[in-house]
Amino acid sequence: MLAHAVTIALALFSLAILFTLYRLIIGPDVVDRILALDTMAINLIAVIVLTGIRMGTNILFEAALLIALMGFVSTVALTRYLMRGDLIE
Q1: Is 85 left (phi over 0), alpha (psi -120 to 50) or beta?
Q2: Angle CA 80–25–40, to nearest 5
Q3: What is the pLDDT along the chain (89 residues), one digit of tens a residue?
Q4: CB 13: neighbour CB atoms within 10 A?
Q5: Which of 30, 46, 76, 83 falls 20 to 30 Å from 59 in CA-CA distance?
Q6: Angle at CA 82, nearest 5°, toward 79 and 85?
Q7: For the whole prediction, is pTM greater than 0.90?
Q8: Under 8 Å CB-to-CB from 88, ≥6 apart: which residues?
Q9: Of the candidates 80, 68, 82, 81, which has an alpha carbon nearest to the alpha carbon of residue 38?
């Protein structure tokens, strides 16, 4: 039962990544593109964790943690650049 649930969740998160990729490319505003990039990072984390569950390995959980950290830092840096025009004060 868990294998079927993981497979379905992987398919749905992959579809969500495609939708956010569309918003990243076609987004009417820079803010929409930044939010799409953050959403894509979150969906990618979910795909990596689900793949780790499916494969039964623990190394992918560490990769998901690193991607979460980079996604958060990049979102903060991009929004700070948009608000102030400078990253370092």
Answers
A1: left
A2: 65
A3: 888 999 999 999 999 999 999 999 998 888 899 999 999 999 999 999 999 999 999 999 999 999 999 999 998 888 888 888 766 66
A4: 19
A5: 76
A6: 125
A7: no
A8: none
A9: 68
